[in-house]
Structure formats: structure tokens, C-alpha cells
Specification:
single chain; alpha+beta; Immunoglobulin-like; six-stranded mixed beta sheet; three-stranded antiparallel beta sheet; 2 helices; 9 strands; elongated
Length: 150
């Protein structure tokens, strides 16, 4: 019966597991979002406008939050959206999603669901074929946070 553990081992392993699960989650900060933006886009200016971001203003459950991003673009070979990147300040990773588009997409629109680690600002940045960057942000209140256990 070499596979059996005694009471002390059981309690020690249980305490170790409990301490890991109760450890505070580490979240990104606004400064980390800015570092991620610089890493992806360099020092190119990011302008406000052309991007519409729809997230519910109040979310009951942060585990599955609906999100829609639309970019004002004709989506032609000459002028189209190359990619859309989503950022969140209160999630473990600041860069939460990247979408690559092209003129054959027809519309510069994405719909997805994200996890939110708490009430926070969500930011969408669109990179166009001419290299310009456009952005918008919104704030959403989460009553039951996700992303709290790593």
C-alpha cells in the first residue's frame, strides 16, 4: 500500500492547494497596456474615431461578455482594415484578442465574447492598410469577475 498517504500528508497537500487557489490574481495595469501598444504599433500616433466598440455597460458575469467592434472602412483593396486588437486593463494579459482582416472580409466588423477580470476599460485599436491607427474605448462594470484564478 505504497500509494496511500497519511493524515499529515493529506492536510499538508490540502493546505498547499488552498494557498494557491486563494492567492491574489495578478492583473495588467494601464502602464502595461501602453507598453503592449508600443510593442505592437511602435511610436505611431493612435487617433480617436472610426472605431465603434459595443460592450454592455453593466455585466452580471465576467466569464462571457459579448463584444462587437466595427470600423468605418470601405474594405477595398486600396483602403481596408488590416487588424483589430483588443486591450483590457484589469485582465491578467493586457492584449486580450487580435483579429486579422483584409479587403475580402467585406465588412470591418467582429463579434466575440471575452472574459473580464473586473470592472474596467476596454480599448479597441484598428490598423488600416495605410498604416494609420484608430481607437476607441469604453468602460464596463462587472458584478462577478472572471480571470481571478490563474
Amino acid at each position: 500500500m505504497a500509494n496511500r498517504i497519511d493524515r499529515r500528508q493529506f492536510l499538508a497537500r490540502g493546505a498547499a492547494l488552498a494557498s494557491v487557489s486563494l492567492a491574489p490574481a495578478v492583473f495588467a495595469s494601464p502602464a502595461e497596456v501602453e507598453l503592449e501598444l508600443a510593442g505592437l504599433f511602435g511610436d505611431r500616433p493612435i487617433q480617436e474615431g472610426r472605431v465603434t466598440l459595443k460592450v454592455p455597460p453593466i455585466v452580471e458575469n465576467g466569464y462571457s461578455v459579448p463584444l462587437t467592434v466595427e470600423v468605418d472602412s470601405p474594405m477595398t483593396a486600396e483602403e481596408h482594415v488590416r487588424r483589430i486588437v483588443l486591450f483590457a486593463e484589469e485582465n491578467p494579459q493586457p492584449n486580450i484578442a487580435r483579429f486579422t482582416l483584409g479587403p475580402r472580409a467585406g465588412r470591418a466588423s467582429i463579434q466575440t465574447r471575452i472574459r473580464m477580470g473586473g470592472s474596467q476599460k476596454i480599448r479597441a485599436v484598428a490598423e488600416l492598410s495605410d498604416g494609420s491607427l484608430w481607437s476607441t474605448e469604453t468602460f464596463s462594470i462587472v458584478t462577478l469577475a472572471a480571470c481571478v484564478i490563474q
